[in-house]
Protein 1
Amino acid sequence: MRTLAVAGLTTLLLGSGAVAAPAALAAPEKDGPVEHRIATTYAAGDGYWTPERMRAARPLTAPAGSAKPATGRATTLAAGDPVEIAPAPGPGPKRAKGLPLAPMAAAQQTWKSGGLIAKTAGKVFGTGGNGKDFVASGTVVNSTDGDVIVTVAHAMIDGDGRWSTNLVFVPAYKDGAAPYGKFTARTMYIWSGYYKDNAHQPPLDFGMLVVNKVKSKTPVQTVGGQGLRFNVTTEGTSNHLFGYPSNGNGGKTLQYCSGESVDPSYGMKYAMLCDMGGGSSGGPWFQEFNRTTGTGYVISAHALRNTTTSYGAYFGPEALATFRAAVAA
């Protein structure tokens, strides 16, 4: 999640390492999903992303110019018919531990109940345009080929329009451990309107990673995948937000907030009270999350927060088209 320095807003970005500066984003000819093939230095991920380097990755300061969308012209979002993709339970137990959980948790808590979310949520590691390593969050979602990870666009491109490199997804990350392996990303997708006029557009801050297999298995084959919903609303529903914030156990464990929707701002669609900080960018935002099975429908990703509230972009037709492009890659 980015931490925007505008009207008290914080844009929690992404951490410290090294690699040559990536090429900047070229202006797309028309609106639509933008693909960028990833320059991955280490094919298996293990050579670069050691436990020590993963622990050392830190959230970055918001890039110059990223605060403009909060006060500039509003981004127009299209409407569309609801689309639903069911969760795909992975191998292993299908039920969580059933520990008592607070239905309203604006102050983040550690997720200790297991279930599908404990395996499908994870950390996204990469090297930013400034040559420094960063950490964000993401989740495996159900898809035809089982290789799509939902996160945020600002984990893929920085404030100067430079693409990230060395991107990997580590499901079920815990204090430097990668129990299911490190899935290297081969390509990524954002929406063309996210980065324009030399500034990020928070209402379009979503992105999809397409990753390689580990031990001949996709992420969905390895851990399962969460459901997805596009073109829906959260009014009157209870939400759950997960991620790996640096202000929660130092980013070592999966954290969550839960509660009712509150009035959104900054051009975003979704908002809820939550104190998860840097590193939780890209964490899954759920509708109808089942605490018994740890499954639900991802309707957004954690993108912005201020001192009390977290915000997520609308998964509308733009996000659906971006997801479909990633599925077809």
Protein 2
Amino acid sequence: MEALVEVVAVPDRPRTSRWRALAAHGSVVGTAGLWPVSPLGLDFRQPRRLAAEPGAAELRLYVKPGWRRRGVGSRLLTAVREHTTEPRLIVDVASGSPGEAFCLRHGFRHTGSRRHELLTYCDVHQAWLGELVDAEHPGYRLTHWTGDLADAPGVDELLRGPGRPGNAVLTAAETDGDLAAYAVAVVDAPAAPRAHQYGPAVLAGHRGRPLGRWVTAALIQRIREVHPHVAEIEAAGADDDPHLLATRRHLGFRLLRRTRRYELALP
């Protein structure tokens, strides 16, 4: 049955790669894609140039139920491994799902659990949100940047450059010109109703203040101004980060799903 499937590359945007598994009659029976793990590097607690972890790519692989356990997923993974230059692949799958079984069969190792949460704008009290954003934080000021993260440098470099139309929104707190905290959101497609948030991150020396909540509230407000079609924001984070969970719960995020993270080291 495997011989009846052809895996082909799909032209895509910069910094993403995609493949399709096509059956003999031309229908798509599986897909695979690689995305940056986060738009500004793996370690969201500090600017990208200071991150110590090696690079990685997020793998999203799907095979239609009727075609599973017939080698389609394995062929897609082979295509990914042959073309990626990243040293690691990272994937989030639901516990006990076919995706988790696939990871275990192909040598992925479990590295943690993640919590995905959703905020819908219809549930946000705009006046209350505005009060959070306008609250004074002595010594700190909010800055914003919008643009395309295809060739994103570190967060601080982005904030020093001019903003422009694009799929990303960055909100940061600065003090005396130094980056203190930030949060980022990315809209995957021009008309997509959902944005994906990364962070907030508060740098060492600035923790213990509600800066994470401040930049996140400002980001929520800013996304709607720049991308008025966006109706909801999805955010993911470690399931054992109480500060992050408390910040999102305070702002109205609700649990969407839980996933398990697996990683595969590549030669």
Protein 3
Amino acid sequence: MSDTVTDVLDGSDVSELLAELRRRGPLVQCITNSVVTGFTANALLALGAAPAMVDNLEEATVFAGIADAVLINVGTINPAVGETMVATAQAAGAAGTPWVLDPVAVGGLPLRDRVATELVPLRPTVIRGNASEVISLAGLDGGGRGVDSTAGVEAALEPARSLCARTGGAVAVSGPVDHIITADDVRTVSNGTPMMTKVTGVGCALGAITAAFTACASPADAAFAATAVWTIAAEVAIERASGPGTFAVEILDALHALGSEQLARLTR
């Protein structure tokens, strides 16, 4: 299948989606890894969304019907959390709540691989990960090294399409150039900075931001807008930061202040 691009958003379109998100203030339930909960919550607040870290089995399935969107991130998984993730995805599907799967370090680790395999048939709205994670999630050898990808983004395009065919949603593959893929469409975002790889939680926060946008837009538009917003905020932040510590603060400030002027930087 040839790569096609249809109805690509520009900076003004993304600005409009961001304004709509801020108007709605979507409630985003996050079942995410313990390393990044605070940063993820702060990113959602800076964006204009509302975080809810409801991740126990008794409450999470109920909350999936209340939330506007759900993030499931398998970064620090254990059997009880895995059970909660699957049950919550089922509840989100039953309630019509969009949800995002972030398959952190999937590929070669048995528990997260098994849980991720159970989650894909539950039809996540968006899958967001690096190339190795996406390739592994599709049932191939992604060759990942923990949370780091050893595969190039281009190698993940066909596996991503196969996942889209199974879920009916979109797949966002992160890399030097980010790719947003549907069954018949590929969009790219070329913004960002290498400093994004030097702060724990930057990729995981993008999963939560993507979930927030799914409350306001189609899967592909949500993934594209989230990627554009976060990577452009990173570009603004790196102009003010002196290293990883200040970058982690500056990216939140940049996200909070982001508007049409900054989003005109969008590079596809």
